Amino acid sequence: MPKPKRFSLPADHADVAPWGIAALVCGAMAVAAVNLSALLPADALGGLHTPYRQGANYHQLRTQLAELAEDRNRVMGDYRALLARFNLLDDDSDEAIRRLGALEKSLPLLIESLPLSSDIDRSLLTASIAESAEEVYEFDGGTMVVRYSPLFDDAAPQPVADQPMPPPLTPEQPPVTAAEPTVDLTLQGVAVGHSVPFDQSAALYAEITQTAGMLLLGTSPLAAVSEGSDQTRIVLGPLPDSASAQALCVRIERLDLPCEPTPYSGEPLPL
Questions:
Q1: CA dist 18 to 23, 31, 251, Å?
Q2: Residue pair 151/127 in contact by the 8 Å Cβ criterion
Q3: In 3D, which of 200, 224, 205, 226 has the Cα closest to residue 216?
Q4: Which residues of the chain register pLDDT less than 70?
Q5: What are the domain boundaries of the chain?
Q6: Given 9, 25, 188, 225, which residue has the most CB atoms within 10 angstroms?
Q7: Domain 188-268 superfamily per CATH
């Protein structure tokens, strides 16, 4: 039996086979792409064509979520602060109620411990309770009688005995005050320089100022008339006391200027 011959392309047509296979593959991919678009949602393909600026909405959402988280944390902090304040108010209210209850319990005991002769109007404490008829309440199984009575046996205030007036006081003697030390209010000064006529006193003061300089700081010149003549002397002051005047004269005399303590009086020096 003769063997069947194997099919084969001629040698000149052998290079066409790869191209045919490639054409078949491309056709199959085209058919699959057309059918695949019908299977996918429309938004899936539309998202691929979304512009870049529209794609930034995702980042905006993340930013807004972060801001909302911060607001939530701030609100929670305010809530905790308010809760703590309410707890403190409750504690203060409980403390006030406790103290008021203790006062209501201790005040009647304190009043009962006081003697009846004390100066207290007990009728005010029991004004709402007086001698009255009994009140009878009937209920299942029997009756109940309520009697009202004052807190104290003798609620009326006791008259306070008149207290005798103390004997009159003897007239008070005026207090003996110690004698105040006498103070010499005379202003002290120093007479500097020789006696000169009044019209030359300004020139003399200028010479004294040039010589003494800073020693005369804080003093004002006066022209004092010398006793028994019409001559005047320059008086500088005022000084606090005679000791200060004596100390100033010691310093001025070292400058070869005559100086002696004297009362600070005279006429203003025409400068």
A1: 9, 20, 135
A2: no
A3: 205
A4: 1-16, 36-56, 112, 114-133, 149-164, 170-185, 270-271
A5: 57-114+138-152, 188-268
A6: 188
A7: Sporulation related repeat (3.30.70.1070)
